[in-house]
């Protein structure tokens, strides 16, 4: 079955914004066996929107749109689609009640303009929006299905998963996309490619995409099939081979981000962690705490930019900073050990480095980062020379530090960094 | 004048790849006075491609495509467009010579399949590709202009700038896009809309886009005009009126993010800041340090998840935590004042709250956040009840805290939070 995606919003026709919702929609549609054959971005003009919806409906069985359901004047998706289908907009009382309830919960009066969001297309099914005010709409028209979703990514995601996907699954499409998501840490993209590409020729029916980012590399082997058992077996086989090729750099075969792996590892080992960061400025603490329930394993963190704070808050001896410099293996070790002792955590992590763009020297260039990890038996450190600009260096350093916590538990007797 | 952009490539219809070329094309087209009214992504299927080109040519004076000009079987843009226009593909000898010369320069024989790239659409003008083999094609058809470009971003960029833009500039389009970018903090999108929408009616020639995110709201008033002086004056006027309507919530009329405004404000006031965060887990420190040179104004931060650390690292009296609870105005105030004293910063910021999803109670629900800011004269606090999931609550809370630093300097005698 074929779908088209329409992203509505004049801001998406400026040089500033991309329609990123279509990536999520494509992944979700693929999972229930629907292939995306066309994506369109259109502005807020009713005339342009009308044409896009009309053409999409002429071509595909399923049309999914995002955006234009807000309360303001330039939110015109509802009205335009109603006009195109020759239907009226009618007020939906259950939707209105939910919206009023939502505003009451936040202790704010509902602005008059939000009333517009309770208007639905005649004959459509409103899809309650668990994360926002505007409901989605499910519309059936002459054998086609039209699904209107809000443009706010968090709202669109929740609405699709909770309301749209179960309805699409009931269509009973047999050919589906089967996929795995492998996550890799501590290798560059070209290293990953060299390790896994020999497998492509042996499995020509599997299409593999590699995605690289400062928070790790993803491998997506994919196969369209109407035989689930066969497809899964084939994916298991290629995943097993990739795992061998990637070794300890493979962190998950189920698409879990490093934060989750680290959280689970710490919990399973009944360990806690504290961090003392300099160049990463809170990024490591932020990644350790973005998981719900992180207070079980995360004790606390210190962002010590100045040398004085490294000493006063974390207990790094001033003479080490004076003799070795703030960016040195010795300071990284003292940060890791100091924060562990001061906070009573099982593990301490220390990061010190030069994120740039200024502050580099020939001996200590921009991108130089020292990481250390300490437990009750001692501390180990590691030197990194990271590429990229300030943002990338900070992200790579936080990623490497997070990965050092995972690696600490790999070999029980020693750990790694 | 109106343009449509078509991105060709089946990989752009997977969940992994976005068409980013269109951002560059849009910026470049806008600069020569051409508005982008539609963007389409289509796969390698000749049938789908043909339909997309046909529809685009029916709607816009200019159609720009990227991708599908390579040497392989799935590069079908040339053939498909030739078929659509009822023209033949003919070998272009100058193009062939340039390609052969290019391969000679790299010391490689030209593969047979590359011959295909020397085939051009009859009556078209080949646009030499300074960075690759496939030339672009400039095609005029019944008053429309069709521009076929390669998909590799570096090739597309060089080709557009060197070959396409000068040709478009010769069209003598007088009307250009003029724009401003206002940034707003501390208001919800609907509040911003209510404040500025009365201006829309008074300036119907200005088209204003509102973009909302947890890191603030952007307003983009835009006007197409053939009179630069008049357009700039009009944008100055509407910007001035928006500034009045938004009051102290307006943080920039030049698109600067809050981090930059806060950095400049602190530097101008010779002030420094330290932060003690609980629910935001390092996010506030991270935003304060993402600007290069932040060590001038950022002293340090503590992420104190546990009550013990609030006391041991920041000096929050344990009896306040016991009697008022960790999420309370009193603890926020003690965090702000404590971190200021312990680090010697001019300002201290404290954040405590419940990011969820667990940990909420009827009295202290998920999303409840207390912010405090302290200087040598004392501390003030503010209560927020934030909507959304864990990630949004953390982002909104960090944003509000960052904004409280900016607001602190608004009224010299007192400041605000």
| Biggest sheet layout of chain A | 6 strands, mixed
Shape of chain A: globular
Note poorly predicted spans of chain A. Answer: none
Q: At CATH's second level, what is the architecture of the largest domain in chain A?
A: 3-Layer(aba) Sandwich
Describe the structure.
- 2 copies of one chain form a homodimer.
- Chain A is an alpha/beta fold.
- The first copy, chain A, is built from 14 helices and 18 strands.
- Chain A has helices at 21-31, 46-59, 77-85, 93-105, 153-169, 189-196, 198-202, 228-246, 258-268, 283-289, 307-312, 318-324, 329-343, 390-408; strands spanning 2-8, 35-42, 62-66, 89-91, 119-121, 125-127, 136-141, 144-149, 176-179, 182-184, 207-213, 216-225, 250-252, 273-277, 298-304, 347-353, 368-375, 378-385.
- In chain A, the strands form 4 sheets. In chain A, strands 2-1-3-8-7-6 form a 6-stranded mixed beta sheet, with helices on both faces. In chain A, strands 9, 10, 11, 12 and 13 form a 5-stranded antiparallel beta sheet that branches.
- The two termini of chain A are 48 Å apart.
- At the A-B interface, α1, β2, α2, α10 and β15 of A face α1, β2, α2, α6 and β11 of B.
